[in-house]
Structure formats: C-alpha cells, structure tokens
Design a protein that fits this description.
The protein has helices at 23-32, 38-49, 62-71, 144-158, 177-187, 208-217, 232-238, 247-261, 279-289, 314-326, 347-357; strands at residues 16-17, 72-73, 78-84, 91-96, 102-110, 113-117, 121-123, 138-141, 162-167, 200-204, 222-226, 265-271, 294-300, 331-333. With 358 residues, it is α/β, with parallel strands linked by helices. The protein binds iron/sulfur cluster.
Length: 358
C-alpha cells in the first residue's frame, strides 16, 4: 500500500507525502502501521491544520509517530520572499518546493474573506503570449499536496483562515487534472480546510476533454474561461490552444457545462491595446456570448516585457464594458490589486529566477 501512495517527484523517494493523501489513504496507512483506522482521520485533521511536524500531533500515540516518521513526511514549503502592496495589503509569495523549484502564490484581502491565488504547475506549457508563467515552459506538475501546501503555508503565515481559492496562478489546472481534482476534494473536506466548492474558482484556457469530465463531476466550483478574444483569428495569435479547441468548440462545451452544473461561467478577457479592445470586438463578443449564462471579467493587461503587448487605456476598458452592458452581457472590470508590486501571474517568480542567473 505504501508503495502505491503518491510520493514527491524525485525527492524523498519511497516516503509517503502526507499532504497528498486522502482520508482513505491515511486510514489505510494507519492500518498498515498497526494502528486503528480512525487514526487516519486524526492524521488528516492535523495535516490540514497546517502542522509542520509529525512530532507535534498531540493525540497520536508515540510509537505510531515514530513509525510515521520512518515512512512518511510532511511536504513543508519555505517562503523565500514576500512582497506586500502598500496600497491594498495584497501579498505575493515566492515559495520554494522540496526539490528546489520555485512557485508563486498571492494573498488578496477582501471584505468577504481572505482569498489565495495558487499555482498548479511549475511554469506552464500553454504558450499564451501575454503570460509570464509560460516564458520558460513547464518544469513539472505540482502534487495535490503541493497545491494545498500553498494554502496552508499562507494561512500559517498570516494566522487567519483562508476562505476562498482561485486556481489562476502559474500552470494550466486541466493539464494537471488528476492532482487538481484530488486537491479540490481535499480542500473541501469538512475534516480539513473545509473550503466550500462555491468559494473556489478554476481558471482554464479550455482543454475540452477535461472540461467535459469536469462538467460530469458537477463540483459547483466557479469555472473561469480565459477567452481574451472575440474570434479565432485573434485568439489563434495569442493562445496556441485555440488551434486545437477553437472558440466555437469552447462555447459549445461551456453551454454543456452550464446545463449540467447550473452554474454561471466567467469569461476572462484581458484588454490588449490596439489588438482586441476595439468597438467591433466588443460587439462581436456580445454576439458570441448572447444567451449564455455568463459573466465577463475585463482585465486591464499587465505588461510582460517579452511579449511587447501593452494594456488598454482606462477609457478604452470602460468603453468596452459599456458596449457589452448595452448588449445585455453581465460584465465587470477586475479591480487591480497589488499594482505596486510585481503584479501579473508568474512575473515575480520569473524576475527572481533571472536575478539568480546573473
Ligand atoms: S494564461 Fe494560464 S494557460 Fe496561458 S500560459 Fe499563462 S498560466 Fe498557462
């Protein structure tokens, strides 16, 4: 059984990564180590309280802790750097994984609670031209324990509960599907962090077979689609995935998703100066989305120097919003948080890695 449990990739081989285990897997591990099954639930509760040492699990027998230490570990992460916005308290974290890889997570403080934006891969292979996360490609997938570890690490750091999660950091969540699904089930567990599915947003560029599977799971999360263009000609130029799954196929699967889950879908649209922000683009987008239970989130683009793309001016953003509204589309402009710190997804990590290479 221990051999079948997920372990970290290339490090601590043959040791069980406790943060990546479900309750059932921890119950089986307890039985295998000669303990009662209920110890698995206790173990799960400790792990998801954010405890960083098996030794400190107060209600577990001493000899069980000794055995646990021999076969398993807690995949703790170190905070390398924190940048805090003086404007709104947004905190960007650079986090080091056990194998030395670096990922980025963000804490945003809203009136309705603390939200974290977390990564699902080290880098990303999807190649969207406006995104810093993809400049060096993907290094590896994160395990479910490393995805949940970001929430636990930040929660421990601020000493406050995290109530909302957005999977919108580095990586394409549906390109690491199994681990992301395990993460969703784990973070939602009442014995663990107990974060409601409705408080979780998963953002994807649109890998259709996985979206179909996700619809069938009917998880009640919020699905956010990175759309960023009103037609295939433009989307092909900035998002390579569109050559495989074009807008028509994407909107078709979104309709199926809505029918199955009864949940409104969000479309993310980054406004790029002179590229996708014209009046005719807003009209075309309105026509495409007409009749779909959806919401459009307009994002003033954060510049990534490699791409040369620039964000639209404020007036253009509001003009675009006005046209969508007039055409009956529910639309908001995303509030810019942390604009005084390295703001866009993947930029902080990239900047850090570059400075290390110099
Ligand atoms: S926008 Fe998302 S899917 Fe596209 S490259 Fe960046 S992280 Fe990957």
């Amino acid at each position: 059984m221990i051999d079948n449990l997920r372990v970290g990739e290339g490090f601590m081989d043959n040791m069980v990564d406790l943060r990546s285990c479900s309750i059932e897997e921890l119950e089986n591990l307890s039985l295998e180590l000669g303990e009662k099954k209920f110890r698995g639930k206790q173990l799960f509760a400790w792990i998801h309280k954010g405890i960083e040492s098996i030794h400190n699990m107060a209600n577990l027998p001493k000899d069980f802790k000794v055995k646990l230490n021999q076969v398993s570990y807690i995949n703790n992460m170190d905070i390398l750097k924190i940048l805090e916005s003086k404007l709104d308290g947004t905190r960007k974290y650079l986090i080091v994984l056990k194998d030395g890889n670096i990922i980025e997570s963000v804490l945003m403080k809203y009136k309705h609670g603390n939200t974290v934006c977390i990564s699902t891969q080290v880098g990303c292979k999807m190649g969207c031209s406006f995104c810093a996360s993809t400049v060096d490609g993907v290094k590896r997938n994160l395990t479910s324990g490393e995805i949940i570890g970001q929430v636990l690490t930040i929660q421990n750091d601020i000493g406050q509960r995290i109530s909302n999660v957005v999977l919108m950091g580095s990586g394409e969540p549906l390109d690491n599907y199994e681990e992301v699904i395990k993460f969703l089930e784990t973070v939602n567990s009442p014995l663990g962090l107990n974060i409601s599915m409705r408080n979780i947003t998963l953002s994807t560029c649109g890998i259709i077979p996985k979206l179909l599977d996700l619809a069938h799971r009917n998880l009640q999360i919020t699905l956010a689609i990175s759309l960023h263009a009103p037609n295939d000609v433009l989307r092909n130029r900035i998002m390579p995935i569109n050559r495989v799954y074009n807008i028509e196929k994407l909107l078709d699967i979104c309709k199926k998703y809505i029918k199955k889950t009864n949940r409104r879908v969000t479309f993310e649209y980054s406004l790029i100066r002179g590229f996708n922000d014209k009046r005719e683009h807003a009209i075309e987008l309105s026509e495409k989305l007409k009749g779909i239970l959806c919401h459009v989130n307009l994002i003033p683009l954060n510049e990534v120097k490699e791409s040369g793309l620039k964000g639209s001016k404020r007036e253009r953003v509001y003009e675009f919003q006005k046209i969508l509204k007039k055409n009956g589309i529910d639309v908001t402009v995303r509030r810019e948080l942390g604009s005084d710190i390295d703001a866009s997804c993947g930029q902080l990590r990239k900047g850090y890695i570059e400075s290390m290479r110099k």
